[in-house]
Amino acid sequence: MRILVAVLILLSLPPRAFADVTDEVAELFQQNPDTTDLAAIKIAADHIIDPSINIADQLAQIDQMVETIQTMLPDNPDAWTRIRAIRQFIYEPGPWNDQRAFSYDHDDPYGLDVHNKLLGDYIQDRRGNCITMPFLFLILGQRLGLDVTPALAPLHVLVNFTDDQGETYNLETTSGAGLTRDQHYRDLLPITDAALDNGLYLTPLTREQSIAVIAAVVLDDLIARKQYGEAIAVADVLLAHHPRFAYVMVKKATAAYHLLQAEFYSKYPIASDVPAERVAELMVLQQVNQSAFEQAETLGWRPLMR
Hints:
disordered N terminus; four-stranded antiparallel β-sheet; 6 strands; 13 helices; alpha+beta; elongated; 306 residues; two-stranded parallel ribbon
């Protein structure tokens, strides 16, 4: 079966071998996940998509942001004081952000243009989405010593923050990083009881799972570039580190469907026309498509109607 899948991946082989990208994504997980700097991981993932990104320059921008926030803090600030300072730095115009506050990009709230999911794009144009906004907040919070982790909702990332008393809160970074109840997300999004029971949504991610969520932008980019075989390979890397990442399961199924359409359905409208030597390939792709969707649905995933 694995040999057949490898053959299928070659069907959409781009100019550079698909192993290059899968290896680069796999390398994101090689560091000790408990000590990994989220900023370095996010920028490295973005660099896979856009090799022109200057990693050192973007890390320096993050360092400068942290230094600026530190000047806004009193001595020995508690966790909530640091949260308020990050909120002010990001969402309120002032000398700390050159009078250019960061805001939600209503033109592309889901980051359908993959480049809008790149951290550098958000820092430059100050218009973010449900990927860049939470991860900038998480990066700054981590650098300032806060207990912050990402959590997922359908097509969305939120911030879990644990204060000095051990109480954990949801922060909704697309809306000023305000406190948000779990029920609010359930009212707005297709979050089933099964999805909660299976840990798909509204639960803090481990650092390894967080890296997988960051790296999912590479999968999005491959699908946007119609490099579907590579996308399947990258999806498998991500699922190895976050086996309940329903978003990636669905993307894997979608990539398999696109390969089916390009290599079989458009060429052989009648099933009996498929050459005998390609029937096994067809069956494997159909299995990948069906099983990935079924796995997500069994865990409680449901599509979000935009």
